[in-house]
Amino acid sequence: MFRNAFQHRFVTVFTSAGSKPLSIWDVYTKNGHARRVTDEHIRSLAFELTGVNVATTFMVAPCAPCPSLSIKLPFLVMLVKNMKKFFSFEIQILDDRQSLRRLRFSNYQSGTRVDNFSTSMPLSLTPGWNHIQFNLADFTRRAYGTNYVETVRLQIHANVRIKRIYFCDQLYTNDETPPELRLFPPVRPNRMMQLKMQQKPQAKIPHEPIETVRPPTPIDNADVANQLENELVATAQCAVGTEL
Q1: What domain of life is recorded for the organism (predicted)?
Q2: H or E element in which residue 104 lies
Q3: Which one of 3.50.30, 1.10.8, 3.40.1130, 2.60.120 gives the CATH number of domain 10-173?
Q4: Which of 11, 31, 8, 9 lies closest to 154 in space, CA to CA?
Q5: Residue closest to 163 by CA, chosen among 26, 41, 10, 30
Q6: Domain ranges of the chain
Q7: Residues whose CB is less than 8 angstroms from the CB of residue 21 and which lie 6 or more positions away in sequence, other chains included
Q8: What's the whole-model pTM score?
């Protein structure tokens, strides 16, 4: 399916947004349902896959009649929510010996089992939403001693809520990941907030003039005494001159 596509950094195989989230997927439900819901935690659309039996309710990519996904990027990233029920998924890969290997992860088994063509491993999920990352090349090398070539098939079983599934060439931090691939994309300010941020602050002009009283100039007591003494001396001289 993606063999002739340019696979650089990120390849998305499922997203809960958009008009056709299941364009490359086939969905099978028995005593369960597959629907798109609005998750109250992330406040965004998510695809919910629930059923009584894990084995009979699942979604698989690629859809028939395409035989293979042909994705060569070695890292699988899934944004899924723990529904506190049984959940499993399978990845079918092709190695350099031209052998198909199946990697199965589930939250209801405690041990790891490696067979000739399949490996079962336990999966631990935290409450709420989880950001799961798998190094498929490392799993293939440790389990079979071979090199990872490409991902052929991806199958998700109940019970889970999915926001996005994608492949990447290496592990990226949250800041390095594009916003549309994150669990919580950065909040963008609306147009009014941008205009307020661009406006320069202006000085506030009072509506009415404010009257201020200027404090009196401080007077030295010594100067006042000298001035009174000089006035008394001048008055006395004037009085003496009048009597003469």
Answers
A1: Eukaryota
A2: strand 100-106
A3: 2.60.120
A4: 11
A5: 41
A6: 10-173
A7: 14, 15, 36, 47
A8: 0.75
pLDDT in tens, the chain (244 residues): 888 888 889 999 999 988 899 999 999 999 999 999 999 999 999 999 999 999 999 999 999 889 999 999 999 999 999 999 999 999 999 999 999 999 999 999 889 999 989 999 999 999 999 999 999 999 999 999 999 999 999 999 999 999 999 999 999 998 899 998 998 876 665 555 666 666 655 555 555 555 555 556 555 555 655 665 666 555 555 544 444 4
Unique residue bearing structure tokens 């798998």: 134
Which residue is it, tokens 């199946």? 102
Chain position carrying tokens 């009085």 = 239
The secondary structure element, H or E, covering residue 7 is none
Neighbours of 210 (CB within 10 A): 5
CA 84 to chain CA mean position, Å: 23
